[in-house]
Model the fold of this input.
Amino acid sequence: MSIEENEKEIIDEFNIFGDDWESRYEYIIDLGKSLPLLSDAEKHDNLLIKGCQSKMWLKTYFDGTLMSIRADSDAIITKGMAALVIRVLNNHRPEEIVNAPLNFIDAIGLKEHLSPTRANGLTSLIKQIKLDALAYLSKGSSETK
Amino acid sequence: MSIEENEKEIIDEFNIFGDDWESRYEYIIDLGKSLPLLSDAEKHDNLLIKGCQSKMWLKTYFDGTLMSIRADSDAIITKGMAALVIRVLNNHRPEEIVNAPLNFIDAIGLKEHLSPTRANGLTSLIKQIKLDALAYLSKGSSETK
Amino acid sequence: MAIFNPIDIRKDFPTLEQKVNKHNLIYFDNGATAHKPKVVINSIQEYYTNKNSNIHRGVHTLSRQITEAYEQARVTVQHFVNAAFSHEIVFTKGTTDSINLVAYSFGKRFVKAGDEVMISAMEHHSNILPWMQLCEDRGASLKVVPINKAGEIKVEDFTKLITDRTKLVAITHVSNTLGTINPIKEIIHNAHLRNVPVLIDGAQAVPHLKVDVQDLDADFYCFSAHKMFGPTGVGVLYAKEKWLNEMPPYQSGGGIIQTVSFEGVTYAPAPLKFEAGTPHIAGGIGLATAINYINQIGFEQIEKYENELLNYAQSQLHQMEEVEIIGQSEHKAAVVSFIVKGLHPYDVGMILDKYGVAVRTGHHCTQPLMDYYKIPGTIRASLAFYNTFEEIDTFVTALKKAIKMLS
Amino acid sequence: MAIFNPIDIRKDFPTLEQKVNKHNLIYFDNGATAHKPKVVINSIQEYYTNKNSNIHRGVHTLSRQITEAYEQARVTVQHFVNAAFSHEIVFTKGTTDSINLVAYSFGKRFVKAGDEVMISAMEHHSNILPWMQLCEDRGASLKVVPINKAGEIKVEDFTKLITDRTKLVAITHVSNTLGTINPIKEIIHNAHLRNVPVLIDGAQAVPHLKVDVQDLDADFYCFSAHKMFGPTGVGVLYAKEKWLNEMPPYQSGGGIIQTVSFEGVTYAPAPLKFEAGTPHIAGGIGLATAINYINQIGFEQIEKYENELLNYAQSQLHQMEEVEIIGQSEHKAAVVSFIVKGLHPYDVGMILDKYGVAVRTGHHCTQPLMDYYKIPGTIRASLAFYNTFEEIDTFVTALKKAIKMLS
Ligand SMILES: Cc1ncc(COP(=O)(O)O)c(C=O)c1O
Ligand SMILES: Cc1ncc(COP(=O)(O)O)c(C=O)c1O
Done:
């Protein structure tokens, strides 16, 4: 599925919740709880994304064609949000990732997580994923970050 | 005449002008023009009062009983105001000078000259005269400042 | 002095009358910044509408009038902290600016290689970093007085650490994270026995309790208007006249000098020497209005009411097993920090916000303190006299829902 | 863009509608501070009434919303001066604060004993004293580029004085006393040929003309909100990203770091690194509103109208024998300084005030310039786009009366 199709799918899922923030957040929290994204051993400080109130680790990998993304957080909502972003972007080509507008976050009513307050790591996460994608693009060969 | 009587006299003179600021200022300006208070040779920098937009020189003298005061300014309104203050305080005992409330400035409608803006030297002039008076008081013998 | 009634008081604060996420706003983030009563907002509006002019510089009427009003504001601040002279009140940008001013000017004059500056383990970054910087610049060293688990400083610990090289003690009056009211009068007394001057970070004290700098014998006392119901961008440095006279200027520029030539300058006396540039005139006017407003209520009533609020909030939280209160001193201002076992403060804060409850989560600019407690942060409810018991109930209900959702 | 009509414009500025000493106020002291349009006053009131909260720190809704608004204000400033990035905009207390920041942080990193800093003879104290202080602290020397009698700097004079030790050039865009618009684009170009960065004091430029920092290629550009129809207590430092990255922080405290322990700190990237403490949030919001207001009128119309005003005022004054205009450059913003032969500026200003005319008299914080002209001060009429030809007529009439009274 393309990035856009992934986004569409999530938007459809969230549409069911209507105006009800509680269900939306329960969904995010469940996502955060269910997915062990990185093992404790993997959570090195050099994977930390700067400027979040909660800790956020990011690990990306490039096989020469597709980029895969893993991330984790010590805060459950942040982790759930990261899981959504990964679900959308994972296993796509770096140029697709660089150009992804990621409108779905706004569309599913979670735009508040994109605010420039430094409390929130989502903006930084997306920025770092795109920076990694850019770096892979310019190098072209497989690599881990 | 006592300081209070001097003040009373000036207030009476100014009462004639009523609400008319132009006459009041013409009076002050005339005062400023007519009185050569210090000769140019006397206008040493060490007599300068700090913090005025116009220059203001102050010279006081104490004969052991009475204090005499002379002052001058390169701005004519400042000079006129100084002349009024001198007319009130000159040749009085230091303790009288220290305690003089100088309400006349307010009473004759020239309170604006007492503002704490540093543009205006009148407040500094009065402060310095009183400081000199205090110094004479504590020493007691004749002296020039 | 009218009888204290928070319901009436709340009417003075328009910001409180709003819905957040469809709930009535419950604002428990007063430690970050407090809301402004209408009189303060109106005084700022009135300044810009009718009185605007630059000060100290013009001979014209508007300029003269606003200079007088601004200097009157200084006198209002003087009386608020009971300073001996109005020229001991320096207007700054805020607490951070005040502390930086002292670190620079006092440091330049008095701190040399090998000297020591002493702070406590519960300081706000604004009362840590300027001293670290000073010590680094001058080759001096920073000494940190420990706290106990309850979040208290022992006066003896302070006294013990003072040496002949100690040049300054800098300590907070009230901890923004823990709420602890430190025994600063005793600390100042003991420091003075060793001839060491003391700077007090009063940012979190002035909204809650009566400060008397002469009774405390503080050498420097710093605070921000925005945390005491006044405008943003303005704060105060109180300093004893003798220090202001000895300290060189900090920033330089228009307004701080008597004469300038390229050969040299003569400085104006304090406070002007420390107030380079056009000041935040509307800020000074608004701060004075905020002080008058506080005085009308009176600290006696404020302290009594806030104490009841604090006790109620703490007792409610105590009843929740999963909650641990961080900062258990017996002397506290109306600040409760806590953690929920197993949950990240950020998650809890996010969900509370959804219920209209504004708390702050994180390290509250006291990272070393978080390291001491080995926690990533806390959830902080910081109260003001316009908060109510009902709000605490609603907050506790919301907190329970949040915990349920997140567990 | 509506057609420019000062009569309509004046209605936006409530402060202009008042009597001073029974006369309609004629406010010709815009160089000291400008009045605020209602939209600016309202945006400040609206902030305090409904949006007040601290920024960057909270997860709650109010805090998030105001953080976004404050960062949006930064973007508005960015576009106003056409900076390449919004993170090149640092919010400060004002021009003086901005210049002190650069003197400290750039100086600490780049200026060593034996180096030189270059300014001009027409600088404001705020663009003299910080450099004198820096040079004194570092053992560097201050070089002063001369001006001619018309009040102009010759680009060649500037270029000639640059040496291999010149580390920075600091010069005003528009002289607050003379009105001269300096050829800063050429000066910057020439300084860059020698690899010397240039700081521009833009305090008196931004209210009058369009500034494009990229076109100018300025390294640093400083200005104050209060002189451009915005609030007091807030200003801007524009700096090229590369300098901000290389410069150490100035003030330290809450908000400027990523991590702190007593062992060391990691700083946040610019602009946060330079914005310690709670900022003047209402100030940032008000400044952005002022910029939007100016943009609505447009600098094209402003420059054209002000030029006409300036020419008219100068030609009226030229006709008076006893008047001498100080500052006769062909490139001037709407500022006229003059002296009346045989009279002290202070006296003239006092009497003008009695007729409701607010001018500034004195040295205008440019004492070295007064020394150059060998005068104690000038009378300065500094105009804004809300001033009118009729006001100039009334002013000239009042001036004639004042001269008559005083002569
Ligand atoms: C040319 C110039 N530079 C700097 C300043 C200082 O500005 P502020 O007082 O707002 O810091 C002024 C204002 O008087 C000025 O006219
Ligand atoms: C204890 C303490 N000190 C200093 C500060 C810094 O105050 P400001 O940000 O107003 O400069 C704060 C505010 O967060 C504080 O709580």
In short: DSSP finds 14 helices and 17 strands in chain D.
